[in-house]
Amino acid sequence: MRGGGAVVWLLVLCGLAYNIPAAQVMGVPLKATKKNAYATMVYMGTPRDYEFYTAARVLLQSLARFEVDADLVVIASKAVPQKWRRTLNDEGVIVKVVNDIPNPYINKPKFDKRFIFTLNKMYAWSLTEYERVVMLDADNLFLRAPDELFQCGEFCAAFINPCIFHTGLFVLKPSNETFKSMLQEIQEKIPNRDGADQGFLTSHYNDLLDRPLFHPPADGSRLTGLYRLPLGYQMDAVYYYLKLKWRVPCGPNSVITFPSVPMLKPWYWWSYPTLPLGIAWHEKRRATIGYGTEIPVLVAESLFYLLTAFTALFMRRRFSVSEKTMGLKSGLPRTPSGDHSLTGRPLILKMVLFGAIIGSYLIPFFIVPTTVHPLMGWGTFLLGSLSLLVVTNSIFQLRLILSVTPWLAGFGMLLVMVWPYHTNGISRSLVMSAYACIASPPIWWAMKGIYFSQDHSLDREPLMAWTTLKAETTPELSKLC
Is residue 373 scored above 90 in pLDDT? Predict the structure, then answer.
């Protein structure tokens, strides 16, 4: 026993040296240590579970770097993998494992299945070990530590819509009575416009618009009752894109939220530079959990693309030399490139060609890990698409300039979007539109050239066949003579 106790204490001392909670080192679940908490939830059952889990980690570690005076809590479904829970524990997050609350609104018309377990957010009211909880969605980006929110009342939320408050961030006072009441209302299916937490809470707190605006007391005391939060605590990213800077006068600019379409959330590498704020989220990730899991995948992909491109170029060079040699032996000229006869050319070959070109862009796009840094994501995508275009170019014997022109045009559009001297969102859109008009004729020329290139290859096929036949029969004719 003494030896075992010494080992335990040695582990605890090592944990202190590396700033790991002692309870975690001893294998004991982390417990509440503060009066207040920042909480978010993680559940399974959507196509993007891993992305939201990654976003939750970045969110909580960003708060940890601000040294907030509160615990960090994740309300996790039982279906959340043990590995994910351990990772959260390793990062100093308290994980509360819960049963999913069945969603009675699932059969509503146009119900979005990604909201199937968002009613788990009601578990925040069961965190009675805390005096106040700030409940968060994973798509929040903190600019500062808004610990003054813990001075708010029983329920506080911001109105980013003039008439409907947003549930991406709200303050609550935990209460078992309120939690049980909410579960009863869910079972009774009170009106819920979207079948999710947003619709439920706006029905439960249907008079919040008439409540006073929250101003934190200077003496640090806690308020009672319901309050509206200033807009600075839930700054919709849309407000930024109009001016390319913040102009939110009411309340301190504290938290950015991204209530956009799911595929343009800030953690997706392709959302930037389309939505400029995406880079801000990735800078938070770079400074917190990093990209250690994705970098080996990107390196392997990049090496594969480089090897593929060099192999295709080598094979094309060999083919070109062989073709030239056979043409010289035949004593016949090659078919002029300007002959665009469509005689006998199956349309299916052209469809295969354009399918290969489209696939050259789609395959790298879907292979790149979704939450990597935009510079890494776009870099790997551009390398992969260029590599596969080279392969397609070699197989179909295209002129390289034809297949690469659309690629160059797309790369140019990226440069236009990231240009740092746009004065506002409107001028940025106008410059992008002007560039699109300039790039359209070269793209049309390239597409037209690709289409007619197969007519040219049709003219060459009989010639090459005749050349091969002549090369085979000449020795026999010589013998007869």
Answer: yes
**What sign has the CA pseudo-torsion 207, 211, 216, 217?**
negative
Say if residue 11 is in the same domain as residue 79.
no
Cα 408 from Cα 414, distance rounded (Å): 10
Q: Is 92 left (phi over 0), alpha (psi -120 to 50) or beta?
A: left
78, 98 contact by CB (below 8 A): yes
Q: Are residues 362 and 281 in the same domain?
A: no
The closest of 91, 93, 87 to 37, measured between CA atoms, is 93
Query: Residue 102, Cβ neighbours under 10 Å: how many?
Result: 11
Show which of 228, 256, 287 is a domain's final residue: 287
Which pTM does this prediction carry?
0.82
Q: What is the pLDDT of residue 467?
A: 45
Give residue 457's pLDDT: 54
pLDDT tops 50 at residue 134? yes
> Would strands 94-98 and 71-77 be described as parallel, antiparallel, or unpaired?
parallel
Give the pair of three-digit tokens for residue 437: 């008009």
The Cα–Cα gap between 78 and 81 comes to: 8
User: Do 24 and 39 have their domain in common?
Assistant: no
Percent pLDDT > 70 in the chain is 83
Beta bridge partners of 74: 40, 95
- Residue 282, C-beta contacts closer than 8 angstroms, at least 6 positions apart: 266, 267, 269, 272, 373, 374
Cβ neighbour number for residue 392 with a 10 Å cutoff: 21
Tell me the mean pLDDT in the region 432-446: 96
Q: Quick count: other Cβ atoms within 10 Å of Cβ 306? A: 13
pLDDT in tens, 161-188: 888 999 999 999 999 999 999 999 999 9
In the prediction, which pLDDT does 64 show?
96
Q: Which residue segment(s) compose the domain that 20 sits in?
A: 1-29
In a shared domain, residues 327 and 283: no
Residue entry with tokens 């920042």: 38
C-alpha closest to that of 394 among 305, 306, 319, 307: 319
Which is nearest to 294 in space by CA: 305, 306, 282?
282
Q: The tokens 């991406």 sit on which residue?
A: 168
Quick check: 477 and 337 in contact, CB under 8 A?
Answer: no
- The structure tokens listed for 56 are 């939750």
| Judgement on whether residues 456 and 469 belong to the same structural domain of the protein | yes
Looking at the DSSP bridge assignments, the partners of residue 235 are 256
Query: For residues 251 and 241, what is the distance between their CA atoms, to the nearest angstrom?
Result: 20
- Per-residue model confidence (pLDDT) at position 284: 95
pLDDT score of 8 = 32
Could you tell me which residues come within 8 angstroms of residue 388 by beta carbon, excluding any fewer than 6 positions away?
A: 305, 308, 359, 360, 363, 364
Give the span between the Cα atoms of 407 and 395, in whole angstroms. 18
pLDDT band at 318 (very low <50, low <70, confident <90, very high): confident
- For the cut 90, the answer to whether the pLDDT of residue 11 exceeds it is no
Per DSSP, the three-state class of 21 is coil
